Amino acid sequence: MSTTMMSRRSLLQTTAVVSALAMAAGLSACGGSSSSGASDDVEIPAAGTDDGTELTMWSRAPLERQVNNAVDAYNASHKNQIKVELLPNDDVEGKVGAAIQTDGLPDILAGDVVRIPYWVQQGVFRDLTAQIDALANKDDLQQGHIDAGTFEGKSHTLPFVTDISVMVWNKDLYREAGLDPEAGPTTLEEYEAHATAIAKLGKSDVSGTFIAGSSGGALVFTLFPMLWASGKEVLSDDGTQSFMASEDAKKIYSSLNRLAALDGGIGAGSKEETGATWTAAFSEGRVGVMPYAYTAVTSLFEESPFEVGVAAIPGVNGGGSTFLGGDAIGISRNCAKPAQAWNFMAWLMSDGAQQAVFADNNDTASSLTVLADGYSEADERTRTANAAIANGRTPVAVNFNEAFNAAGSPWQLLIQDGVWGDGSKVDTYNEQIDAVLAQ
Predict the structure, then answer these.
(1) Which of 45, 70, 155, 270 is the most buried (most CB within 10 A)?
(2) pLDDT for residue 8
(3) What is the CB neighbour count within 10 angstroms for residue 237?
């Protein structure tokens, strides 16, 4: 086994995922393990059962392409058939919460890895410890998404879609601005300089950069890596203290603040963007350079009328990092055919499926073997993005959702002040983040 692969395994196995303890009112009344559907003592063969059963599955709409790639490949090669319902990101909690109350969960449920720990603790998923432990390549899988679904020693979820954050730039706009189209920003200063050069083109409806100013999730996904790349932490080891008012963090806010004050520096609508459409402006060719979701950029390689550059997200003075996110997947407690649902999950974990569904489509595989060896024919930009995983991180905090992701969180208020205000309240809002984390 190569040193590179060992470093990836060491990193990914040490990642853990935040747990949100108060996410939706509809979830608060639910507890325990299972209340209806198949009993946990139903026998599930190692490979599951493929007998022509129709299964239901819910997944998030932002990952539509990756979800459809997986389900279409499975349906084309198996007797079982999966019917997918894609849920808008903002509707997931309400939909799942209502389904919990009515025992109307789908057979298979995939969700944002930051949501998984709470769902598991509330008994949404079936215990799959025996099945997961029996996977021949369990130790070769991205462990963060397995850890997210582990509660009281029992495992409930597997990796589904591994998403990472990257820096992207529009090479066509770079050429127009006199920038090197093959060299994206490698420091915070270069990021600001490149965005400034694009803004000074004065092109109508084109901006230097874009951020989702009112989406806590998108902001941690894109800004936290700048600190990790700088060798700095974003949270204390126990997850009860935020370092988002550090000197380097303030340099990031100040840089974005200068761009916000520049005509065309930060795209119109950035301040109000809640995350629903935060990748649209770049995909439409209206942004020069920005931190971005890799699951949203791969489709642009062939479909976009402009050429896209990809790199790790740079630190204040160099380096590169990424946020390890995405979705985990499990069998719901209401599933009456768990052996058939497991057939899909076990198949998806195989190296063959990981290669065909993810690697061959320039997406990030969850198999470390495929991640290390399965991209020799992939787009060079995919190999560049995968390389960032070696320095990628996932933050750990029990109350992460309330402190950072929830609407109106102190983190969102901090960004509003640091980027579009005068920055005078950054320390105060960071103290509020501390207070929430320490609850």
Answers:
(1) 70
(2) 39
(3) 8
> Is the CB of residue 208 less than 8 Å from the CB of residue 199?
yes
Q: Provide the H-helix boundaries in 143-279.
A: 144-148, 171-176, 188-199, 216-229, 247-261
Distance of alpha carbon 36 from alpha carbon 393, whole angstroms: 37
Radius of gyration of the chain (CA): 21
The answer to whether the beta carbons of residues 169 and 288 sit under 8 Å apart is yes
Divide the 439 residues of the chain into consecutive groups of 10 and give the mean pLDDT of each group.
36 36 33 44 91 97 94 98 93 92 97 84 94 95 86 94 95 98 98 98 97 95 97 91 98 98 97 93 97 91 93 97 92 97 98 96 91 91 89 79 90 98 98 96
- Are the C-beta atoms of residues 108 and 56 closer than 8 Å to each other? yes
Query: What count of other Cβ atoms lies within 10 Å of the Cβ of residue 54?
Result: 11
Would you state the pLDDT for residue 144? Answer: 79
Alpha-carbon distance values, 369 to 22, 141, 319, 323, 372 (Å): 37, 8, 25, 20, 5
Token look-up 């520049």 returns 262
Tokens (6 digits) for 379: 């787009």
Nearest to 85 by CA among 96, 100, 74, 77: 96
Q: Cα 117 to chain center, whole Å?
A: 15
Say what angle helices 247-261 and 410-420 make with each other, to 10 degrees: 60
- Say if residues 19 and 46 touch (Cβ distance below 8 Å): no
Burial of residue 43, with CB atoms counted within 10 A of its CB: 0-12 exposed, 13-18 middle, 19 or more buried? exposed
Q: What was the pLDDT predicted at 33? A: 40
Are 331 and 193 contacting, i.e. CB atoms less than 8 angstroms apart?
no
Instruction: Give the pTM.
Output: 0.77
